[in-house]
Design a protein that fits this description.
281 residues, seven-stranded parallel sheet, 15% strand
């Protein structure tokens, strides 16, 4: 018997990576594309619509519970939420430590909580974290647990996330992205009770419009050195992230949940054990 209820893939963040994953997992489904800026959603929706996908758009501020909850309501009004692609965030070059923690750490926890309440049986999701989360020195067991399980509304009150502890944007970003993978591991337990799966992908330098800005900005030399020294010797493409996203969200990845997939061309390996390693006296 044909199921007439629409299956909805929610994409938060209308950039190249979110689109690349959506293209691989959304055939025959309804894409709800949400971004902080309507013009970003509209531009991405045009491309996807012209490629044969059914797309609606919405505005969302992931740092606002009311805004994320409204997106959930929009999604369930369309149909059954079978997929979540969370690719929204701000980079160290774009924002202050406080904003990065609010958007990238708290915002991701909020999205996981709200969509974890409605994700369908058999559904799946991916969160785009970052190689930066793998560059942070080990946290304590207590800090790991706090990032993973602290109630969403209390997350930003953790002592080690206060301004006197997190003084620069890169540190805030690394903590946020480490927090994303830890949070997803904990959420995988809750999502599993609904018959759903959730994982993170931690990409390295992926060539997107934002990355091109970064490469020409104050951190550009450092990024180019990372690329040159890495084992692969090049940056990645959104399509490569899309392929991993498709594995994690599809039937071939049905035994994978609560996991983080680092894909950075070997940059993190070089950071810990190669030429990018910090110099020690």
């Amino acid at each position: 018997m044909k199921n007439n209820k629409e299956k909805v893939i929610v994409v938060i963040g209308a950039g190249s990576i979110g689109q690349a994953i959506a293209r691989r997992v959304s055939a025959g489904k309804h894409i709800l594309l949400a971004d902080l800026r309507q013009e970003n959603s509209d531009a991405a929706a045009k491309v996807l619509s012209e490629a044969g996908f059914q797309v609606s758009t919405a505005i969302v501020d992931v740092s606002s519970r009311a805004s994320v909850h409204a997106l959930v309501e929009t999604a369930i009004a369309i149909g059954e939420v079978t997929g979540l692609i969370h690719a929204a965030g701000v980079s160290p070059s774009q924002a202050s430590p406080t904003t990065i923690l609010k958007v990238d750490l708290y915002g991701t926890a909020l999205v996981l909580e709200e969509f974890g309440n409605v994700i369908a049986d058999g559904g799946s999701g991916v969160v785009i974290a970052s190689q930066s989360g793998h560059r942070l020195p080990p946290l304590t067991i207590e800090q790991n647990k706090a990032l993973a399980t602290t109630r969403t509304e209390e997350l930003l009150s953790l002592p080690f996330l206060q301004p006197d502890q997190v003084k620069d944007s890169l540190h805030a970003y690394q903590l946020s992205k480490r927090g994303n993978s830890l949070r997803v591991m904990a959420e995988a337990v809750r999502w599993g009770k609904r018959g759903a799966r959730i994982n993170t992908i931690s990409p390295g330098i992926i060539i997107t419009p934002l990355a091109k800005d970064e490469l020409s900005g104050p951190r550009g030399d450092g990024y180019r050195r990372m690329i040159d020294i890495s084992a692969v010797g090049r940056a990645g493409t959104p399509d490569e992230v899309g392929s991993v996203g498709a594995l994690l969200m599809g039937q071939d990845g049905s035994f994978i949940t609560g996991s983080d997939f680092l894909m950075d061309g070997g940059v993190t390996a070089a950071y810990w054990y190669g030429e990018l390693a910090p110099k020690t006296e």
